[in-house]
Write a structure and sequence with these properties.
Helix content of chain A: 10-25%
Largest sheet of chain A: 6 strands, mixed
Strand content of chain A: 35-45%
Low-confidence stretches of chain B: none
CATH class of chain A: Alpha Beta
Number of strands of chain A: 7
Shape of chain A: globular
CATH class of the largest domain in chain B: Alpha Beta
Mean pLDDT of chain A: 94
Helix content of chain B: 25-40%
Largest sheet of chain B: 10 strands, antiparallel
Strand content of chain B: 15-25%
Bound molecules: FE2/S2 (inorganic) cluster, fe (ii) ion
CATH architecture of the largest domain in chain B: Alpha-Beta Complex
Shape of chain B: globular
Oligomer: heterodimer
Chain lengths: 169, 440
C-alpha cells in the first residue's frame, strides 16, 4: 500500500471526493456542458492514453488529449444543428465506484484519486459498453475541487473500436 | 454469381452507374476477396514496424490472416498465420516478439517455427519417424505467394502471378515517394501505434468517400464551424493563434469553389490521386528548418521540387488511403460485405525537424483517432449508405453521373475536369470490373 493511502484520509475527504466524481458523471450524462467545462482548472486536461503504461500525453498518439479549448470545440460540434451523427439521439449512463484516494497534499488539500467506471452509450438502436479506470488529479479551490488532469484508461484500449467516441467517457 | 440469379457480375457496372449488389451482396463480396484482394498487392506493414528480430504484427489480406515478422538474419517475412499441424492461429496477439529463441511456438501442441516459417522443432518427434520428413513443405508455415518492398512499405500478393509491385503501383507510387522524399534521409519510420476502427459498411464506400470533394463541407459542417469558432475564441482569450489542428478541422468546410478548382487523377488498376488542397508550406520556422535540412542533402532545386509536390491524398486500390504530406495511412481490411476494419498509422520523417512530426501527430489525432470529430460523421454516412443499399426496394442503382464523359484521358490516365467529378469512383469501378471479370 502507498504511504498516503485511503486509510489515512479523513471520511470527510473521502466523501467530498466521491461526491465530486459522482457529480462529474451526472454532468456528462445530463450533457450539462457548461458545468462540465467548469469542473476543470484553466490548465485542466482530459486524457485517454493509447496504452496503460503511457506516462505522458505530449508528442505521442492519444485517444483523447484535450485542453479546455478543445473540449469547448467538441461541445460546439455536438450541439451544432448539422452534427449528423448526433441527430439520432445519443445517450450515456455512467456508474463510478471503487474510489480510492491515492494521496492528499496536507498543505493544499489537493488529491490524486483513482476510481472505476462503467458507461453504456445508446445510439441508433445500439448499445455499447465501456469500462475502465479514472485517475483524477484534483486541485482544492474555494469553490471545491477542480480537475487538473482526468486520466481515463479504458479496458479495450487497443480496440478495435466500433464507431468512434464523440463525447468524453 | 451474385445471390440474385438474374444478375451476372459483368452487368453490375456501367459507365455512369453501378448496381447496389456491388455493396450489399455477400456472394459478390466473396468474389471480390478471390478476384481483387487475393490477386492484387495488399499493403501489409512498414519494415520499421518490426525493427528487431522476432518482432511481429498480425494483419489481413482479404479474410486471410497474415503475419509480418523479422527473422534473425534481418529479413522481413510475410506468413499465413496458420499452424501446418492442425490449423491453429500461431500469433493470437496483435503484435509482439517471439522471444529469446526467435521462434513462433504454436499454443496448441508447441510446434516451433523459425521466423521464415520453417519448422524448427516439435515435441515427441519420434511419432513421425519413417512417416513424413519434417522438412516437407506441408509441415511449414506458409509464406505469402509473393512479397515486395517499395521504399520500406511491404506488400504481399496471394497470387503467384500478376504484375510486379512497382508496375502495379504505377502512378500510386507517389504516395510513398512523397512521404520518403520529405525525409532528409529518404526514409519514413512508423510510429508504433495502430488505431483500429470498424465501419459498418462496405470497403468501397470508405475508398469512394476519400476523394469525394462534394461531401466535406456538408458532412463535416458541424466540425468545420466549431473549429472556426474556436480559432476566434482562442485568439480573443490568449492573444495567440490557435494551434494548427484547428485549421486542419476548419479546412473541412472549404467552400465548393475551392474543391471545384482541384483535380483528381485516375491511374490504371484503380489508383487515384487528389492533387492540391493543402498549403503545407507556410513561412514558419518549422517549415524553414525542414527546407534547410533537405537543402543540405539535395541542394535547393531538388528541395524545392520535393516540397512543391502537392499531393493531398492517394488511393492505392483496393487497400490503402494515404495522405503523404501528413504521413498518414489507412489500410482497408474487408471483413464482410457490410463490415470493414481500418488500420490507421502515421509516420515520422527520419532526419526532419520535430515540428514536422507535430503536424503529422495533430492530424492523426484530430482526423484519425477513435475520438475524431471528423470521421464520426463520415462513419455515420457510411452506415446510412450501407443500410440504404441493403434495401430490396427503392431502386437498384447507385449514380456516378457527375461529369461523366468530360474528364480527359491521356495514355490511360484520367484527369478530372473538376475536383468534384465522380472520376475516382468510376476509375475504381473500371478496375473492379477488370478484376472481377478477368479483363474479358
Ligand atoms: S495445431 Fe499447432 S502444434 Fe498442433
Ligand atoms: Fe469525410
Amino acid at each position: 500500500m502507498p504511504k498516503d493511502n485511503a486509510l489515512n484520509t479523513s471520511a470527510d475527504t473521502q466523501r467530498a471526493v466521491e461526491q465530486f466524481l459522482y457529480q462529474q458523471a451526472e454532468i456528462l450524462d445530463d450533457r450539462r456542458w457548461d458545468d462540465w467545462l467548469e469542473l476543470f482548472t484553466a490548465d485542466g486536461k482530459y486524457w485517454m492514453p493509447v496504452d496503460p503504461e503511457q506516462v505522458t500525453g505530449e508528442r505521442v498518439p492519444n485517444i483523447f488529449y484535450e485542453d479546455v479549448y478543445l473540449m469547448d470545440m467538441r461541445i460546439r460540434r455536438v450541439e451544432h444543428p448539422y452534427a449528423h451523427s448526433q441527430m439520432a439521439g445519443h445517450r450515456t449512463s455512467h456508474t463510478v465506484s471503487n474510489v480510492i484516494i491515492q494521496s492528499e497534499d496536507e498543505a493544499t488539500g489537493d488529491v490524486v484519486c483513482t476510481s472505476r467506471f462503467h458507461m453504456v452509450e445508446y445510439r441508433l438502436d445500439d448499445q455499447r459498453y465501456f469500462g475502465g479506470k479514472y485517475t483524477h488529479t484534483l486541485k482544492k479551490t474555494e469553490g471545491g475541487y477542480r480537475i487538473q488532469l482526468q486520466r481515463v484508461d479504458i479496458a479495450n484500449v487497443e480496440g478495435p473500436f466500433d464507431f468512434v467516441m464523440q463525447v468524453w467517457l | 454469381m451474385p445471390k440474385d440469379q438474374n444478375l451476372d457480375i459483368g452487368s453490375l457496372v456501367e459507365p455512369d452507374r453501378v448496381h447496389k449488389a456491388c455493396y450489399a451482396d455477400e456472394e459478390v463480396f466473396e468474389q471480390e476477396l478471390k478476384n481483387i484482394f487475393h490477386k492484387s498487392w495488399i499493403y501489409i506493414g512498414h519494415e520499421s514496424q518490426v525493427p528487431n528480430p522476432g518482432d511481429y504484427w498480425t494483419t489481413w489480406v482479404g479474410k486471410e490472416r497474415m503475419i509480418i515478422c523479422r527473422a534473425e538474419d534481418g529479413q522481413v517475412h510475410v506468413l499465413y498465420n496458420r499452424c501446418p499441424h492442425r490449423g491453429a492461429l500461431i500469433c493470437n496477439n496483435l503484435h509482439g516478439n517471439s522471444g529469446n529463441k526467435k521462434s513462433f511456438r504454436c499454443p496448441y501442441h508447441a510446434w516451433q517455427f523459425a521466423m521464415d516459417g520453417s519448422l524448427r522443432n516439435l515435441p515427441m518427434k519420434e511419432g513421425y519417424d519413417g512417416i513424413i520428413d519434417l522438412k516437407d513443405p506441408q509441415l511449414q508455415m506458409r509464406p505469402a505467394e509473393r512479397q515486395a518492398n517499395y521504399r520500406g512499405f511491404i506488400f504481399a500478393s496471394l497470387s503467384e502471378d500478376g504484375p510486379d509491385l512497382e508496375t502495379w503501383l504505377g502512378g500510386g507510387k507517389v504516395a510513398f515517394d512523397d512521404i520518403c522524399n520529405r525525409s532528409p534521409e529518404g526514409e519514413a519510420e512508423i510510429v508504433a501505434n495502430c488505431f483500429r476502427i470498424i465501419q459498418h459498411s462496405n470497403w468501397k464506400i470508405f475508398l469512394e468517400n476519400q476523394l469525394d470533394a462534394v461531401h466535406p463541407s456538408i458532412t463535416h459542417h458541424s466540425t468545420g464551424d466549431a473549429a472556426a469558432d474556436m480559432q476566434k475564441v482562442y485568439k480573443d482569450k490568449t492573444g495567440e493563434d490557435a494551434p494548427m489542428g484547428y485549421q486542419f478541422l476548419a479546412d473541412f468546410t472549404l467552400p465548393f469553389e475551392k474543391w471545384d478548382s482541384l483535380s483528381t487523377i485516375g491511374h490504371p488498376y484503380g489508383h487515384n490521386v487528389l492533387a492540391g488542397y493543402m498549403g503545407l508550406r507556410p513561412r514558419d520556422p518549422v517549415t524553414i528548418a525542414h527546407e534547410e535540412a533537405l537543402t543540405a542533402v539535395h541542394g535547393e532545386e531538388r528541395m524545392d521540387e520535393i516540397l512543391s509536390t502537392n499531393v493531398h491524398h492517394v488511393l492505392v486500390y483496393p487497400c490503402l488511403s494515404v495522405q503523404p504530406p501528413l504521413q498518414q495511412l489507412r489500410a482497408v481490411r474487408p471483413l464482410a460485405a457490410n463490415k470493414t476494419l481500418t488500420e490507421i498509422w502515421h509516420f515520422k520523417l527520419k532526419g526532419a525537424p520535430e515540428g514536422i512530426y507535430d503536424r503529422s501527430l495533430a492530424y492523426y489525432y484530430h482526423v484519425n483517432a477513435p475520438s475524431t470529430m471528423v470521421n464520426a460523421d463520415d462513419l455515420n454516412n457510411f452506415r446510412a449508405c450501407q443500410d440504404g443499399l441493403e434495401l430490396d426496394g427503392g431502386g437498384d442503382w447507385v449514380s456516378l453521373h457527375r461529369n461523366v464523359g468530360q474528364d480527359p484521358v491521356v495514355d490511360g490516365v484520367t484527369t478530372s475536369v473538376t475536383g468534384m467529378s465522380e472520376q475516382p469512383m468510376r476509375n475504381m469501378f473500371a478496375a473492379w470490373q477488370e478484376y472481377m471479370t478477368g479483363g474479358e
